Amino acid sequence: MVKITGYETHDVRFPTSLSGDGTDAMNTDCDYSSAYVTLLTDSDLVGHGMTFTIGRGNDIVIMAIKAVSDRLVGKDTEELFADMGKTWDYMMADPQLRWIGPEKGVIHIASGAVNNAVWDMYARSRQKPLWKLVVDFTPEELVRSAAFRYISDAITKEEALEMLKEKAATKEEREKKVRELGYPAYVTSAGWLGYSDEKVARLTKEAVAAGFNHFKMKVGADQANDLRRGKIIRSIIDDPQYLPAGAKPRDPSGEELHGKNAGPTGAVLMIDANQVWDVNQAIDYVKGLEDIKPWFIEEPTAPDDILGHAAIRKALKPHGIGVATGEHAHNRMVFKQLLQAEAIDVVQIDSCRLAGVSEVLSVLLMAAKFGVPVCPHAGGVGLCEYVIHLSLIDYIAVSGTMDRNVLEFVDHLHEHFIYPCSINSNGRYNVPTNPLEGYSIEMHKPSIAEYEWPHGSYWVEAEAKKRAA
Ligand SMILES: [Mg+2]
User: Fold this and answer.
1) Of 82, 157, 327, 349, which has fewest CB within 10 angstroms of its CB?
2) Distance 272 CA to ligand 1 centre (A)
3) How much distance in Å is there from the Cα of 251 to the middle of ligand 1?
4) Do 141 and 192 have their domain in common?
5) Cβ neighbourhood burial of 168 (10 Å; 0-12, 13-18, 19+)
6) Is residue 462 included in any domain, yes or no?
């Protein structure tokens, strides 16, 4: 019997605000941060997890992680693994902690870090990457692992089981295909708001040359500016001369690109406002960007405003522009309502704003039932490492398709992870294959030592420089 004996936490912050990486209309000076936890046992087995934040407040999440982790100390790991849905319910059900949630805010993202750490430990114990552990589940095991409370009006366990059984026979084919091809990705890092036009143009050309065909740009600070930058990006992605040697343009009216406003080379542009507008303002502003032909507007307004998203979607539909959201949708009930209200064209789950893999599974199941593609949010630090696992689970075991999906990719900070995600020469995520990597979120110890806040070597030096100036 292996028991959880304790945990370690680290408040790790990277000084990304110095370079303008990650800047958008709402978040103007982010220090990408990880509220990191390692669950320890009385054997060699450990489980790593983290939640992403953008700087100040990471210490508050760490405090919450400790409160949530306390409940797991003394637990038998095999008992936890045997019914991950029950484990999730137990983690959510602390009779006192739930008052500062429930299932929202700091306590929920902290629960995400800890639930992910339990899943990481489970995958390591079976010597499989996390995605492989889950796709090898029987349909019954997968349904049992999901967080089902409060969503049975949208999907019942029986319906979920039916859907998974239908897909089970062809899982192997899909696994083989995605191992060969990789999983489709898109690039956000060319279009941060804090970058100059020249930098945007250069990065866009580099992204096209690297094989990407979906690109996202941040908008919402200034419409004329957005139009100008959007036209710069379109002029590059729509021009066949920038395609990688030997690459042919894709058919913009083909099944995979249908309804995405793809240009002549098959390139797709998405835009992201990070919640800056009121509903009517969003509608007017985005109509004004029709010339740059976006597939969707992401996070046009407050992330909790389900009916607002529905109104925006309805108003933009005649203009051929869709709506996406989810990186700030804090639990499965928000996604349930977004789907029920027909408010979104794309589901953008976040791997650690939802409370870990168990809650993600329930959203994947609902999205598949409603026929809406899941394109997870990533970037930040650690998120790309996490989400490739989730998209593989979606493709192989749940929705059965990746033709219209694209997984966000941002090329920052991967070097701090022992098993970093990677992209192949066709602009697609490689499948994580190391049997020891679990959920791929283990950080290098020297990275933690350098960037731990406030006593890591980087922050001590930065403080000394500030004092000397
Ligand atoms: Mg976004």
Assistant:
1) 82
2) 6
3) 27
4) no
5) middle
6) no
How would residue 27 be classed by pLDDT, with cut points 50, 70 and 90? Answer: confident
> Taking the model in full, what pTM does it have?
0.97
Cα separation, 58 vs 12, in Å, equals: 8
Report the SS3 class of residue 394. Answer: helix
- Residues 223 and 330 grouped into a single domain: yes
CA-closest candidate to residue 379, choices 413, 424, 355, 356? 413
Nearest to 293 by CA among 255, 267, 274: 267
In whole angstroms, give the CA distance from residue 395 to residue 341.
24
d(CA 391, CA 399): 10
Domain count, the chain: 2
Q: 339: domain CATH number?
A: 3.20.20.120
Pair (215, 67) in one structural domain: no
Give the DSSP per-residue string, 411-469: -SSGGGBSS---B-TTSEEPPP--TT-TTS-PBPHHHHHHHBTTTSHHHHHHHHHHHH-
E-only strand ranges, 212-274: 214-218, 268-272
Q: Is residue 469 part of a domain?
A: no
Q: Which helix (H) or strand (E) holds 120?
A: helix 105-125
Q: Which residues are catalytic?
A: 218, 377
Q: What is the mean pLDDT of residues 249-275?
A: 95
Residue 189 Cα to ligand 1 middle (Å): 11
pLDDT for 207-258, tens place per residue?
999 999 999 999 999 999 999 999 999 999 999 999 998 889 999 999 999 9
Range(s) of the domain holding residue 256: 171-429
What is residue 318's three-state secondary structure?
Answer: helix
φ, ψ for residue 39, nearest 5 deg: -85, 135
* Position 22 confidence tier, pLDDT thresholds 50, 70, 90: low
Give the residue among 466, 443, 444 at the shortest CA–CA distance from 454.
466
Site of tokens 């319910």: 89
Per residue in 361-384, pLDDT (tens digit) is 999 999 999 999 999 999 999 999
Crossing angle of helices 306-316 and 279-287, rounded to 10°: 30
Distance CA 362, CA 334 (A): 12
CB-CB contact of 257 with 320 (8 Å)? no
- Can you read off the two tokens belonging to residue 398? 């749940």
Q: Name the helix (H) or strand (E) containing 52.
A: strand 46-53
C-alpha 300 to ligand 1 mean position (Å): 10
Q: How far apart are CA 386 and CA 391, in angstroms?
A: 9
